[in-house]
Amino acid sequence: MRPEERDTRGSGAGPSSDGGRDAQIAPPSPGHDPYQVRAKNLLKMRALWAIPVIVGSILMVLVTVIYIGSVVNPVGHLRGLPVSIVNDDVGATIGARHVDFGARLQSGLTGSRAVSTLLSLTPERLQAAKNRMDHNGAYAAVVIPPDFTASLLSLTGLRLPAGTSAGKPTVQLLANQRAGTVGVELASGVLTPAIAVASHRIGQQLLARAAPPAGSATDAVLADPITFTSVDYRPLPSHSALGLSAFYVALLTLIFGFLAATIINVTVDAATGYATSEIGPKWRQLAPLPINRWQTLLTKWAMALPITGLLTGLMLIVAIGLLGMDAPNAGYLWLFTWLCAASVAAGTLVLFAILGTQGQLLALLLFVYLGLASAGGTVPVQALPGALKLVSQVEPLRQILSGVRSILYFNSAGNAGLTRGIITAAVGLIFWLALGTTVVRWYDRKGLQRLSPDLIDYVQRSITAYRAQAQPQPQRVEKGAQAGGVNRTRGESS
């Protein structure tokens, strides 16, 4: 059957699919409006209000709790933000006594409940800390320099051993902006007051040793001797949206997967006659095809694969080629985003197939709303509420973001998040394919068709009868109406 043979237009009243009604509908009386239902009649129906009010209210409450709850108090929810601490201080020997203020500072930070509760401080050497930050493993590193103790003791006027150099007492924070700018700010916000407290405590010890005149310049310097500075470690590229380009690419990847599934679902259902299509004033309903749920889902999955590849490719062409976004490994980025978008599209189509139109709301809530709140794209995962931290372990957006961040900022290192992203996207795709196959084929085996074969046959026969009725009947030619070689039919003027 050709598609045009199944086309029923909105310009005429088509047959009802209700088997209890006659396929031939009598035309309205002349002068009467055939569309007699008014808005006021619909607005009096309680059932009409129930779904928008109840479902809309529940959805908005959930979205507000998820969104606002994820960002309203990041410091209060902060637990275990990874930060390295490097103590290169060699100390100083004064007489028979060895002094090491660097070790005291390190133990003070790691032993402070105010710091250790919020940050996960890992003592390690400088090269190990840099390697960790190169693989997206830490937001920052606190570096205590080799001459830290010597520089503090020099402030008291104490003569240092020969060959000992002393500069200004400084503790440096190496900020890993590539891991996330908000995470760096949170780490700095915790460490700055903690270093200030340690500086005052060390200052009291220095004041007791030097005993300078009260109010003197030396007294002021020794009261707060440590300077805490922040330096960017491997600064971000200039066209990286201040470190947010990875988040936006990941978000667009997820959205394209969702949108592709939504468009494909509507298109296939309209083409097979299980949904209407309306473009402007044009309304169309095709006669339903005799196709089961499983074959319909296979068609949608097959379409989703090339379409998601096309959409993600166009996204990167525009972002990189037109807008100049920094992307050192564009080929890897396209393949990864294609895989992730295909996984999201497959899952969305499965929810459509299992739940019907309600599947779109559930997909929107699971993939988009919940994903945005738990991805760690703006607020780090360590600063999310407990429930969202748990959700982030399986939410696709966080896994997409990990892989995209690795490709854009960490030279596509597998242990910087790319391996995790590939595995979770592949597992997610397999999960949705398995779930869709199991449930949809079970629907078909149980006879839970979208339309029964008898009803499809009835619709086809009704359309045929309706068109036969609507088609103009050939009129008879009157005898003797031929004159001068001109044929005139009844009703025509001479």
What does this 3D model show about the protein?
The protein has helices at residues 39-43, 46-71, 74-77, 101-111, 113-116, 126-134, 148-154, 181-210, 217-223, 245-271, 293-322, 330-355, 358-374, 386-391, 396-409, 418-445, 453-470, and strands spanning 7-9, 81-87, 92-94, 97-99, 119-123, 140-144, 170-175, 227-232, 277-279, 282-286. With 494 residues, it is of the alpha/beta class. It contains 17 helices and 10 strands. 54% of the residues lie in helices and 9% in strands. The protein folds into 2 domains: 74-232, abc type-2 transporter like domain (abc type-2 transporter like fold); 238-277 and 284-470, no CATH class. The protein is elongated and about 125 Å long.
